[in-house]
Write a structure and sequence with these properties.
By secondary structure, the chain is an alpha+beta fold. Helices cover about 40% and strands about 25% of the residues. The longest helix has about 35 residues. It starts with a helix and ends with a helix.
Length: about 290
């Protein structure tokens, strides 16, 4: 495991360029008027003494998913398994709560680990710091937290790749320079940066995912596609939704003048390993929709 002294040595021996420092400050300042309300998962943007409600990135992604008649599906499932629709509803709700709660805790550990990696011990979420930071170590609980720790351990020796910020909140401005009319806001897990060949700053967006699977074998076999403009090659499955999600985040930074060259899903697995998956650049198609 990495110790805080290892982190401090890395920060000393491999100091971040001023462009990284400035990007961190600029992004935080640019979205200072964006407010997130945990209850109901709502975003609001403060502009000229007005409070503008913004849809979430998740809602944008859901707009491309075909309608699913869950009532009929639950009824058929109940009949097949000799139970009631109410029992199926309860069981599926319990499963969703467990999955969401476990995912939230893993993401909180991921947020803490980037602060740890930046040497920002005081900025770590209190619940993680109090329970899992001991003797200079950030101790993972469970396999998916082990995968997060391994991700940063693998990153430790990588030069010219610098963490900028965790839990980066973005939105599309009402007067944005991209021509976007469908305004939205969201939060992604990790932002990294590095200097290109011409000494220009390039950004990479990373997002943790804890799904059991990112693909849907049935929908692949049946060739069930997303709605336009993604109905040509994108299957209805988590991987497709996450690809659109990361492109939404990219546009939020692109309006600030930044160049986003990579979008990565970091899939945390139950065996303590992780897999990095590149999300395709579908920004042109996405922009076509968002501009209408």
């Amino acid at each position: 495991m990495l110790n805080i002294e290892d982190i401090r040595r890395r920060l000393r021996d491999n100091p971040e360029p001023i462009e990284i420092t400035n990007a961190r400050k600029k992004i935080a300042y640019s979205f200072r008027n964006l407010e997130f309300i945990e209850d109901g998962h709502k975003y609001f943007y403060h502009k000229d003494d007005k409070l503008l409600s913004m849809v979430s990135v998740s809602a944008v992604c859901h707009a491309f998913e075909p309608f699913v008649d869950w009532d009929t599906i639950k009824k058929k499932y109940a009949e097949k398994n000799n139970t009631t629709v109410d029992e199926v509803t309860k069981k599926w709700h319990e499963t969703n709560i467990k999955s969401t709660s476990n995912g939230s805790l893993v993401h909180l550990f991921g947020e803490a680990y980037m602060h740890f990696f930046l040497g920002e011990i005081d900025l770590m979420p209190t619940i993680i710091k109090d329970m899992q930071y001991e003797d200079g170590y950030l101790i993972p609980y469970g396999e998916k937290e082990e995968a997060i720790a391994k991700f940063y351990e693998d990153l430790f020796e990588v030069k010219n790749f610098f963490p900028i910020m965790p839990e980066a909140k973005i939105c599309i401005y009402p007067d944005n320079n991209l021509g976007i009319k469908r305004l939205y806001a969201g939060t992604f897990d990790m932002l990294f940066g590095f200097m290109g060949k011409n000494n220009n700053l390039l950004l990479s967006i990373f997002d943790w995912k804890t799904n059991k699977s990112l693909t849907n074998d049935f929908n692949i076999r049946e060739q069930k596609k997303l709605l336009p403009p993604f109905n040509d090659d994108m299957i209805v499955q988590p991987l497709s939704s996450y690809t659109i999600q990361l492109n939404c985040y990219s546009l939020g930074l692109r309006q600030l003048g930044y160049k986003i060259v990579d979008r990565k899903i970091v899939w945390l697995k139950p065996n303590g390993e992780y897999e990095k998956i590149t999300a395709a650049d579908v920004s042109d198609k996405l922009l076509g929709y968002l501009r209408t």
